[in-house]
Write a structure and sequence with these properties.
Distance between the termini: 48 Å
Structural class: alpha/beta
Number of strands: 10
Strand order of the largest sheet: 7-6-5-4-3-2-1-8-9-10
Strand content: 5-15%
Largest sheet: 10 strands, mixed
Shape: globular
CATH class of one domain: Alpha Beta
């Protein structure tokens, strides 16, 4: 039986800003998901048993906060009314932060919503790409939203997209996070997805540039304890490198329905959440069905899913045979293979060389310099390795 770990729900495709690297094709559309569509989705998810081990719901794929707080109060109440008592559920927003006023900050704190704010570092770097439709920077509004969250004690993380400019400025990035009290940092790289083609990916030696950035950022965080408490890329890589030998890597992006996505019309997709909304005639735009007319439990038998899964598994098998980093990533991310290599049944990408291979190299290099784990052979907890200056 499938197990949904992450459910991505598009409340609206609309976004109030126009990032230069955004791949979402429909971000001027102000449509809103219907109440009946939400009822059909969550009633079927809970009835299927696919979420009986808990569910993380991310409201994303547009700016969730362009809808009023009343929308989410009502939606959360509907969902809670359908949820079995023994199923845990967490709501999360990924937001550009520009709309976080006092009312939103209070609601986020009250509802216990997990928050990720997209900010690309200090003003000169953030405003290069994260702009309004008239081309004006959004930094001031985003950082004001972050400060409101901090005033209320709301825990949050930030996601920063790294471009060539920010990769050259680890000290400037670190100083900005430290000054703003940002303790949990996640780095995304500027990817080639949909119609967007990454300028960073085209640079010779970009993988080594990424390695040097992370290495220096990690060193700075260790030299200033208490400032940056969590670097997703380092923590994740440590966890995978140091995990017990018997623990295998689970690649949820290559596992049907582990990540399940629904757009505002009720269309359902799986594997990489970025696939939903992108166009591809070979795979029928990745849409397995629509929750308003199809049964969720019937979707695993769809020929499209079997075709996609076959190609994705072929790519995973190729990675297993050819890549020494396979135990760390479990075969890569389908969306990056598709848009960089032209198909799922392919192997490594610039994305995986940067975010999997070189980060693993960084952890292994540090291990070599500080010594091996305890003689017992047991894995050290994430965060135990300090970078050597």
């Amino acid at each position: 039986m499938p197990r949904i770990q992450l459910l991505v729900v598009q409340p609206t495709p609309f976004c109030n800003i126009d990032c230069r690297y955004c791949y979402l094709p429909d971000r001027t559309n102000k449509a809103v998901v219907a109440e009946d569509t939400l009822i059909n989705l969550f009633s079927q998810v809970f009835a299927s048993g696919w979420a009986d081990q808990g569910l993380s719901v991310v409201w994303h794929a547009g700016e969730p906060m362009v809808l009023p707080i009343a929308f989410y109060r009502h939606a959360f109440a509907l969902i809670d009314g359908m949820k079995p008592a023994d199923v845990s559920l967490v709501h999360s927003f990924q937001t550009n932060g520009t709309l976080i006023d006092d009312a939103w900050a209070d609601f986020i704190a009250e509802a216990g919503i997990h928050i990720g704010v997209s900010i690309d570092g200090p003003k000169r770097l953030h405003d290069l790409n994260r702009v309004t439709r008239s081309g004006r920077g959004t930094f001031d509004k985003t950082v004001a939203g972050i400060r409101r969250l901090r005033e209320r004690g709301v825990r949050f993380h930030v996601i920063s997209v790294l471009t060539a400019e920010s990769l050259a400025a680890p000290q400037e990035m670190f100083d900005f996070y430290a000054a703003e009290g940002i303790e949990h940092v996640c780095f995304n790289v500027e990817e080639s997805e949909g119609a967007h083609r990454s300028e960073s990916f085209g640079q010779v030696g970009i993988e080594d540039v990424y390695y040097r950035f992370l290495s220096e950022f990690w060193r700075l965080s260790t030299a200033h304890p208490g400032k940056i408490r969590y670097i997703r890329e380092i923590e994740s890589a440590q966890r995978n490198v140091l995990r017990p030998q018997e623990a295998t890597f689970f690649n949820q992006l290559a596992t049907p329905f582990a990540v399940t996505s629904m757009d505002w019309t009720g269309n359902i997709a799986t594997f990489s959440p970025e696939l939903l909304g992108l166009k591809n005639p070979q795979y029928d735009d990745f849409i397995l069905g629509n929750i308003n007319r199809d049964r969720l439990v019937d979707l695993p038998d769809r020929p499209l899913l079997k075709r996609m899964q076959s190609d994705i598994e072929a790519g995973v098998a190729m990675c297993r045979e050819s890549c020494e980093y396979f135990s760390i990533c479990g075969g890569g991310e389908p969306v990056n293979k598709l848009f960089e290599n032209g198909g799922f049944a392919t192997t490594e990408t610039t994305y995986c060389r940067m975010t999997k291979q070189r980060v693993t190299d960084l952890i292994l290099d540090r291990l070599e310099r500080v010594g091996s784990p305890a003689a017992t052979g047991e894995a050290l907890p994430a965060g135990m390795i300090a970078p050597v200056p």
